[in-house]
Design a protein that fits this description.
nine-stranded parallel sheet; Glyco_hydro/deAcase_b/a-brl; 256 residues; CE4_u4-like; alpha/beta; Polysaccharide deacetylase
């Protein structure tokens, strides 16, 4: 495989970890699944080819049996609850949120119960006890409700020990975040430069070496351009062939 300097630095870093006898957990979260599509098939074919487990954050209000039937033969897929309808309830002056404090807490909790119930029925074996809040934002006041519903873990974006997650620590709810986003949401809305993504992975490797945890990669199959697919293919090829990397199911991370 022909590699540029950024990719070679990634390989060198992983080789150094291997030489030091270290093994880092990676996991993949893909958001906004609702129905079968060519893009989703492409993601699942790619991850299946490299035996990379994937957690699909599914929007309960928008999905049905078509998706569950299409995933029934995909043994490397786990499903997480992605809010209820992925609808923004925040005013225009605030960042978008579905699970914020803009509605009565019992109303939001009822939505999450409905989401849990729907996906439990559609995915009795594949559903993980994980909540992925739309836009990676949630009112900390909902934590007690989450545990009563049956959630054991929460996944947003950023380091688990960062200020953004302070309110969720020491609550009994596990934090298993994503840390590296492949998409340039505020610019091209396509793939970020590969070198920038790899630098984020390198920074996260530093954090994991110092504090533990995993490297969570965040994707959105419906909006991937060819550069994203190229990046993921290279990343999977490099990491699955290096003993310093171990791609984990979200259920394994929760059980750990």
């Amino acid at each position: 495989m022909k590699m540029g300097s950024a990719w070679q630095r990634c390989v060198d870093r992983l080789d150094a970890l291997q030489d030091g006898g270290k093994c880092i957990d990676f996991w993949l979260r893909d958001d906004d699944a609702v129905e079968p599509s060519p893009a989703l098939d492409r993601l699942l074919d790619l991850t299946g080819r490299f035996s990379v487990p994937v957690t699909l954050a599914v929007i309960p209000a928008s999905t049905d049996e078509r998706l569950s039937r299409s995933l029934s033969s995909r043994m490397h897929v786990d499903v997480a609850v992605h809010g209820w309808s992925h609808r923004n309830h925040a005013p225009a002056i605030e960042k978008r949120q579905e699970l914020g404090a803009h509605r009565p807490r019992e109303t939001v909790a009822a939505d999450l119960r409905a989401g849990w119930a729907r996906l439990s029925a559609l995915y009795p074996a594949a559903l993980a006890p994980l909540l992925v809040p739309p836009w990676n934002r949630i009112d900390p006041g909902l934590v007690s409700e989450l545990q009563e519903i049956g959630f054991e873990a929460l996944s947003v974006f950023g380091p688990e020990d960062g200020e953004k997650c302070a309110a969720f620590r020491d609550t009994g709810l596990q934090l298993i975040n994503t840390h590296v986003d492949v998409m340039d949401w505020h610019g091209t809305r396509g793939c970020r430069p590969h070198g920038d993504i790899l630098r984020d992975i390198d920074r996260r490797l530093d954090e994991v070496e110092n504090s533990g945890g995993s490297v969570g990669i965040l994707t959105h199959h419906l909006v991937h351009d060819e550069s994203v697919w190229e990046f993921l293919s290279k990343l999977f090829e490099i990491t699955t062939s290096n003993p310093a990397c171990r791609w984990r199911r979200i259920t394994e991370l929760i059980d750990r």
